[in-house]
Amino acid sequence: MTYTLYGAEVSYFTGKARAFLDWKRVDYSEKPATRDVYREIIVPRIGWPVIPVVCGPDDELLQDTSDIIDLLDARHGPPSVFPETPVQKLVALLLELFGDEWLVLPAMHYRWTYNRDFAYREFGRLSAPDATDEEQYEIGRANATNFEGALPMLGVDARTAAAIETGYCRMLDELDAHFAAHEMLLGSRPSIGDFGLFGPLYAHQFRDPESGKLMQERAPNLVRWVKTLRDNKAARPGAFLEGDTVPETLLSILRTQMQDQFPCLADTARALADWAKDQKPGTPVPRALGKHAFTTHGARGERMIFPFNLWMLQRPIEHYRSLSGGDRDTVEAFLSGIGGEAFSRFPDFPRLERVDYRLVLA
Ligand SMILES: N[C@@H](CCC(=O)N[C@@H](CS)C(=O)NCC(=O)O)C(=O)O
What we know:
single chain; about 350 residues; alpha+beta; Glutaredoxin; 2 domains; four-stranded mixed sheet; two-stranded antiparallel ribbon; about 10% strand; globular; binds glutathione
């Protein structure tokens, strides 16, 4: 085997990386991120405890699914998960941003509200595979503290929980309608957007038992998409829709992204610009820059300000800024149909880079 994926079935971002590696037919084996793996590989070499981590053939370590996918998609040749046409590429990158940074709200809410015991057992089994069931439960409960504790930091609390559920159920209906007509988001080939949505929708919302029941009952076509991407090792490459088409059935989700996620991103951009005024290039960026008020599906809450979200936003922005002439006009017309001014008129913010697995000012 050429590559090793250190991760877990229960992990959001491992789901994204694994589905990509399978579809791309990368030669890899998966090793569970046990506490020994964290202690001996991840923490000493990455610098902080996080999964997934991919170890390459020359012992290089890759972390962050976007870096993993960008590198391996290019290294392992076509077919690519990045559409070449302007609108589809933009939509794919926007939906990656949405899956990675915004669906974390329902994914964490449902896991830690309705699937807590299951998650403790899973966390324990991963960390200490040889321990007894009771020991695993206790280990899982201890290891889960940081994840469970992240809910209020993400803005999931009594003020927002009901609205997060309403918004999530509406999205289930929208995705179900979409996958009734299409295999993947943009045709029969999965794009980076599919992998971004797959992380939360597989590892949390399909696999956690109570959330899985909800998805099975409410969105059978979405379940089919989840299973296709889960079992996609020998999938055919498929193709993106002709003519740079984006199915109508995705537009409501993109509108929701513009209305729900983008105001929070814009506020994050202002906070980053403010913080960066006195900083030099290369300065490490704190994981959170204080707190801000935000609104989700009409409910007002408070959450930490996460600059990492903007690193993800740079991906669609870079694509958008690279366009000119007719391509730019087509994209502008598309954006105006989804309330995309929130994206096309996004405030400027300091550029972010990742150096040694950490976010720094460029
Ligand atoms: N943006 C990263 C996020 C990785 C991530 O958040 N992984 C979770 C598990 S699914 C984790 O290990 N979190 C620990 C932490 O964030 O402190 C990626 O795409 O890989």
